[in-house]
Amino acid sequence: MHRLITRLARVMAGAGGLVLGFLIILTCLSVLGRVLNTILHRQVEAFAPETAKWLLDLGIGPILGDFELVEAGVAFSIFAFIPLCQITASHASVDIITNHLPRGLNRFLGMMIEIVFAAVLIMIAWKLSDGMFSKKRYGETTFLLQFPIWWAYAASLFAAITAAIAGVYMAVVRILEFFSGKTIIQEGFEVDQ
């Protein structure tokens, strides 16, 4: 079971990384296009209006709807990275107080945190599904690109469901660790079973 969920988490993180990489390139190209557009309008147009017009007619400028794509893609990427953070117990934590607590109390706290985290991930997936069906029902689209908003919700929902599965799995692992007294998955590491 651990290997299956770990593979699924890695696939999701890979997909999130690809989307994030695409968004970085898209943003850089859009900013470059915006800068070139400004230069063509302010500097080149003054001494070479024909060349400036020709280049502007080619479409040099910001990428239309770049912020709409970034908004949808970043939401997906965030949800896509959560399962790997969850399965490897690699979320950021501040251990100033817990480092001084007894091991049993730390196991209890870890179990409770994972249970709450799993519940929150399930609730997020549930509310995302509500939002997706609402956006689909009303046919809402983005302003510039006019793509259906529910597509972004669906992608994020798939990643959120994967995160919820990983969250539930880790909650079960922490419950087993608490009652058995054995470490199954160490904090910040991946343990093959």
Explain how this protein is built.
This protein has 193 residues and is mostly helical. It has one domain (2-180). It contains 5 helices and no strands. α1 (2-47) packs antiparallel against α2, α1 runs antiparallel to α3 and α3 runs parallel beside α5 (149-180). It starts with a helix and ends in a 13-residue tail after the last helix. The relative contact order is 0.16.
Task: Work out the number of β strands.
Answer: 0
Mean pLDDT: 91
End-to-end distance? 8 Å
Overall, the morphology is elongated
Percent of residues in helices: over 70%
Alpha plus pi helix count: 5
How many domains make up the 3D coordinates? 1
Task: Tell me the β content.
Answer: under 5%
Give Rg in angstroms: 23 Å
Q: Characterize the main sheet.
A: none
SSE string, helices as H and strands as E: HHHHH
Structural class: mainly alpha
Which parts are unreliable, with pLDDT below 50 for 5 consecutive residues or more?
none
Protein traits:
193 residues, mainly alpha, single chain, 5 helices
What's the short story on this structure?
With 193 residues, the chain is mainly alpha-helical.
Write the layout of secondary structure elements.
Blueprint lengths: L1 H46 L1 H9 L8 H22 L15 H36 L10 H32 L13
